[in-house]
C-alpha cells in the first residue's frame, strides 16, 4: 500500500437487530465487553476456568519477552481429557459427539463414550509405535472420524500433530514432513471426492522417498476406500484396523504444561517456504472454547453444530475439533463436496441432522448463489438459528443472500475474522448482542484488542482505512514459526512496533466498526488512490447478474494500476448479452464512484482458487498483464487458468 490510507468507498446501510429470543437467552451479553475492558487478563483467567486443569494456573500472561508469549504458564492440563473424558465423567457419555456423513452416503454416529474408547486405543497404538511426548506426527487423511480421533490421540500423549490437507501433493506433504521432522504419518488408502475414490497413500509413499523424511518410522493407514492395488512397505506400513483395533480402550491421560506444543499447521503464504505456525495447549484451548461458546451461542444440550471446513485447515482444528468437543457439542462431520451427488447435498444434511448452527466460507455461499435460490428452497432448513462465515471478506450481497435463503431472514449471520496465526476468532459480532451489518466483522471480541492504523502506526479516525493490527497478546496466538523465531519476528512484529501486523487492509466505519478489505498485497493503486479489491468485488456482486467476482490491479501507464475484473454470472445470466460489461461498469461507478469503475470486465466460468477457497489474485494479475503464469501448484484446478486465458482477447471493454 502506498503512503495514503485506503479509500473508503462502500456504503452499506442495512442493519439487522439480534432476534429478541436469542438475545434474552444469549450465552454472552454486552456486559462481557465491559468486564474485559476493565480487566483484560482477569477476563481471560476467568475463561480459563471453562477448562479442567490438573494444576490450576496462578499466572495469566507472561509477556516479559515479547512477542514470545506464555499464557497460564504454571497450569497443567490434558487437551483430550478436556475434549472427551470429562464429558463422559459428567454423565454425558451417551451424547453424540459426531454425526459422520461420508460422501457415498455411509454414516456413523459416535457418542462421547465411544470417542473416549477410540481415542484411547489410538493413543495406545501411537505409544506402541514409539511415539513420545514432543514427537511430531503428520496426519494426511480425508474428512473421516479417524482424523479427529488421530488429532485427539496425539494431543492425549503430548505429540504435536501436523495436519496436511488431503488435497495437497506429495511435494507439499514431503516439505511439511521434513520441516516438522515427523516420526509417524497417519493416512488412508484414499477418500471419496465427487463420488469417486481418490487415493492418498501413493502420495505418502512418494513423499517418503524425498530426502529429509528418513525419520518417519511408521505409516499408519486407515482403510477407507478399499482400493486393492495398494503398495505396502513391510516394517513401515501398518493398517489402522490391525494396530489400533487390537489396543486396549483404556488409557489414562497425563497432564502437560500449558505451553506444551499442541500442533503445527503450515500456512502456504504467497511466497517462500510454508510457515509452520505453532500453537500450544492452555491458552489455545481457553480461547477456542470461549469463542465457540460466545460467537455461536452454543447450547450443547440442544444444538447441532456444523462447520463445513476441512480438518486440514485451522478452521477445522479450532471449530471442528477443539472448540465443539471441549464444549461437549454434538456436531456434523461431512466428508465430501457441497455438490455431490447434487447441488442440494449440504441442505439435505442440515435437514437430516437438524443442524442449528452452520459455519462456512463465502466461497461456498457464492457457489450456492450461483446454483440458484430454488435449490436450498427444496429443503427444510428451519432448524437453523445461527449462521457463520469465515475465510475471506464476505460481500454484503452474499451475506444478505445467506441470511435470506439459508436463514429464512431470521438467523443472525456472524462474520468472523481470524487467521491460522490467531488460532481462534478475533473479530466478530455476538449473535445476541450486536446489530449486524452485512459485510463487516465489526467488533473485536471481549478480551481482544484490534484496531486500524496508517503507515505511521497511528490509529485512523472513524471513516478511514489502513492496516489491521492487534495491539495486545491473546491466549490462542501463535507462539512462533516452527524452527524460525526470526521469521516470526520479521513477518508479524516488525512492520509496526509492539503491534501484530495481520497483513489485511481494513477500515473503520463511522461507528468505529471494522470492515476487512482483503490482503494488503491485493490493494490497488489507481490514480493516487488506494482501492480495495474487496470493495469493487462487492459492488460487482451486488449486481443481480453477478454471483462472484475477482478484481486485480494491472499495471497501467496512465493510472499506475487499472482495475481489471473477472466475473462469474448467476445461473440465468448470458455472458454474451449486448451491453453487459458497460452495465456492470456503470453499476460499480454508481455504487462506489467513478474512480472504482473497472477498466476491463471479463465474464468467466470459473475463478482460480486455493484449496481453502481463496481467490488467487496473483494469477489473475499475471493474466491481466499478459505475463506467463506463476506457480500454479496450489490451485484446485489448473485448467481454470487455461480457460480464462483462452477467453481473454474477446472480452475486454477498454476500447
Ligand atoms: C486470512 C487468514 C480464519 C480461518 C480460515 C482462514 C482472511 C479470514 C475473514 C473474514 C475478511 C477474512 C484474511 C486473513 N479472512 N476470515 N471474516 N473477513 N477476511 O485462515 O488461511 O490463515 O487466512 O483470511 O485475509 O488474514 P488463513
From TrEMBL:
User: Which terms does the UniProt entry file under GO BP?
Assistant: acetyl-CoA biosynthetic process from acetate
- UniProt modification remark: Acetylated. Deacetylation by the SIR2-homolog deacetylase activates the enzyme.
Q: Which organism is it from?
A: Streptomyces eurocidicus (Streptoverticillium eurocidicus)
This chain's protein is named Acetyl-coenzyme A synthetase
Q: What is its EC number?
A: 6.2.1.1
Give the matching HAMAP family: Ac_CoA_synth
Q: Where does CoA bind?
A: 193-196, 315, 527
Where do the AMP-dependent synthetase/ligase domain residues begin and end? 91-474
One of the entry's Gene Ontology molecular-function terms is: AMP binding
Q: Quote the function comment for this protein.
A: Catalyzes the conversion of acetate into acetyl-CoA (AcCoA), an essential intermediate at the junction of anabolic and catabolic pathways. AcsA undergoes a two-step reaction. In the first half reaction, AcsA combines acetate with ATP to form acetyl-adenylate (AcAMP) intermediate. In the second half reaction, it can then transfer the acetyl group from AcAMP to the sulfhydryl group of CoA, forming the product AcCoA.
GO cellular-component terms in the record?
cytosol
Q: Which reaction does it catalyse?
A: acetate + ATP + CoA = acetyl-CoA + AMP + diphosphate
- Its gene is acsA
What broad class of enzyme is this?
ligase
Top-down, what is the taxonomic lineage of the species of origin?
A: Bacteria, Bacillati, Actinomycetota, Actinomycetes, Kitasatosporales
Report domain Acetyl-coenzyme A synthetase N-terminal positions.
30-83
Per the record's keyword annotation, is Metal-binding included, yes or no? yes
- Positions binding ATP in this chain are 391-393, 415-420, 504, 519
Q: Which residues form the AMP-binding enzyme C-terminal domain?
A: 535-614
At the top level of its lineage, which domain of life is listed? Bacteria
Please list every transmembrane segment annotated in the UniProt record, as residue ranges.
none
Q: Which residues carry this modification: N6-acetyllysine?
A: 614
Amino acids binding Mg(2+): 541, 543, 546
Q: State its cofactor.
A: Mg(2+)
The record's section on Pfam families has: ACAS_N, AMP-binding, AMP-binding_C
Q: Which UniProt keywords apply?
A: Acetylation, ATP-binding, Ligase, Magnesium, Metal-binding, Nucleotide-binding
Amino acid at each position: 500500500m502506498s503512503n495514503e490510507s485506503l479509500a473508503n468507498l462502500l456504503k452499506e446501510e442495512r442493519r439487522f437487530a439480534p432476534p429478541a429470543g436469542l438475545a434474552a437467552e444469549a450465552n454472552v451479553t454486552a456486559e462481557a465487553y465491559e468486564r474485559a475492558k476493565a480487566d483484560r487478563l482477569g477476563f481471560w483467567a476467568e475463561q480459563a476456568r471453562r477448562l479442567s486443569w490438573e494444576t490450576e494456573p496462578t499466572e495469566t500472561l507472561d509477556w516479559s519477552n515479547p512477542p514470545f508469549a506464555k499464557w497460564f504458564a504454571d497450569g497443567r492440563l490434558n487437551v483430550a481429557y478436556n475434549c472427551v473424558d470429562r464429558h463422559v465423567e459428567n454423565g454425558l457419555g451417551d451424547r453424540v459427539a459426531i454425526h459422520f456423513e461420508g460422501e457415498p452416503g455411509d454414516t456413523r454416529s459416535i457418542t462421547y463414550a465411544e470417542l473416549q474408547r477410540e481415542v484411547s486405543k489410538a493413543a495406545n497404538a501411537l505409544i506402541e509405535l514409539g511415539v513420545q511426548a514432543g514427537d511430531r506426527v503428520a496426519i494426511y487423511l480425508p474428512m473421516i472420524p479417524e482424523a479427529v480421533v488421530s488429532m485427539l490421540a496425539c494431543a492425549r500423549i503430548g505429540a504435536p500433530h501436523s495436519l496436511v490437507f488431503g488435497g495437497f501433493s506429495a511435494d507439499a506433504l514431503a516439505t511439511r514432513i521434513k520441516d516438522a521432522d515427523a516420526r509417524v504419518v497417519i493416512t488412508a488408502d484414499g477418500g471419496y471426492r465427487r463420488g469417486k475414490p481418490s487415493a492418498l497413500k501413493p502420495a505418502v509413499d512418494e513423499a517418503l522417498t524425498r530426502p529429509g523424511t528418513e525419520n518417519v518410522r511408521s505409516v499408519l493407514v486407515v482403510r477407507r476406500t478399499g482400493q486393492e492395488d495398494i503398495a505396502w512397505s513391510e516394517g513401515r506400513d501398518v493398517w489402522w484396523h490391525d494396530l489400533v483395533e487390537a489396543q486396549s480402550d483404556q488409557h489414562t491421560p497425563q497432564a502437560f504444561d500449558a505451553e506444551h506444543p499442541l500442533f503445527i499447521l503450515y500456512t502456504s503464504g504467497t511466497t517462500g517456504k510454508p510457515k509452520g505456525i505453532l500453537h500450544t495447549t492452555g491458552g489455545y484451548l481457553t480461547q477456542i472454547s470461549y469463542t465457540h461458546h460466545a460467537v455461536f451461542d452454543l447450547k450443547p444440550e440442544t444444538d447441532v453444530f456444523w462447520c463445513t471446513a476441512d480438518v486440514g485447515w485451522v478452521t477445522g482444528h479450532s471449530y471442528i475439533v477443539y472448540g465443539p468437543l471441549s464444549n461437549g457439542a454434538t456436531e456434523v462431520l461431512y466428508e465430501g463436496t457441497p455438490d455431490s451427488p447434487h447441488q442440494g447435498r449440504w441442505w439435505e444434511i442440515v435437514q437430516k441432522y437438524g443442524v442449528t448452527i452452520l459455519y462456512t466460507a463465502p466461497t461456498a455461499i457464492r457457489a450456492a448463489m450461483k446454483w440458484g435460490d430454488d435449490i436450498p428452497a427444496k429443503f427444510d432448513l428451519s432448524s437453523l438459528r445461527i449462521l457463520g462465515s469465515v475465510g475471506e471478506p464476505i460481500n454484503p450481497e452474499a451475506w444478505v443472500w445467506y441470511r435470506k435463503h439459508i436463514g429464512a431472514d431470521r438467523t443472525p449471520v456472524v462474520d468472523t475474522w481470524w487467521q491460522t496465526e490467531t488460532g481462534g476468532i478475533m473479530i466478530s459480532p455476538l449473535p445476541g448482542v450486536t446489530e449486524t451489518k452485512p459485510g463487516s466483522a465489526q467488533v473485536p471480541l471481549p478480551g481482544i484488542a484490534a484496531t486500524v492504523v496508517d503507515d505511521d502506526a497511528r490509529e485512523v479516525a472513524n471513516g478511514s482505512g489502513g492496516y489491521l493490527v492487534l495491539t495486545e497478546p491473546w491466549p490462542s496466538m501463535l507462539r512462533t514459526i516452527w524452527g524460525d523465531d526470526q521469521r516470526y519476528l520479521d513477518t508479524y512484529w516488525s512492520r509496526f512496533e509492539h503491534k501484530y501486523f495481520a497483513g489485511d487492509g481494513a477500515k473503520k466505519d463511522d461507528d468505529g466498526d471494522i470492515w476487512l478489505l482483503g490482503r494488503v498485497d491485493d490493494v490497488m493503486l489507481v490514480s493516487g488512490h488506494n482501492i480495495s479489491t474487496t470493495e469493487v468485488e462487492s459492488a460487482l456482486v451486488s449486481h443481480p447478474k453477478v454471483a462472484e467476482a475477482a478484481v486485480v490491479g494491472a499495471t497501467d501507464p496512465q493510472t499506475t494500476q487499472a482495475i481489471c475484473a473477472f466475473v462469474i454470472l448467476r445461473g440465468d445470466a448470458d455472458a454474451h448479452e449486448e451491453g453487459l460489461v458497460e452495465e456492470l461498469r456503470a453499476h460499480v461507478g454508481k455504487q462506489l464512484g467513478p474512480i472504482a469503475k473497472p477498466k476491463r470486465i471479463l465474464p468467466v466460468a470459473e475463478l482460480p482458487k486455493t484449496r481453502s477457497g481463496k481467490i488467487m489474485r496473483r494469477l489473475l494479475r499475471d493474466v491481466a498483464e499478459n505475463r506467463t503464469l506463476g506457480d500454479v501448484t496450489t490451485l484446485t484446478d489448473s485448467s481454470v487458468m487455461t480457460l480464462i486465458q483462452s477467453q481473454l482477447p474477446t472480452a475486454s471493454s477498454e476500447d
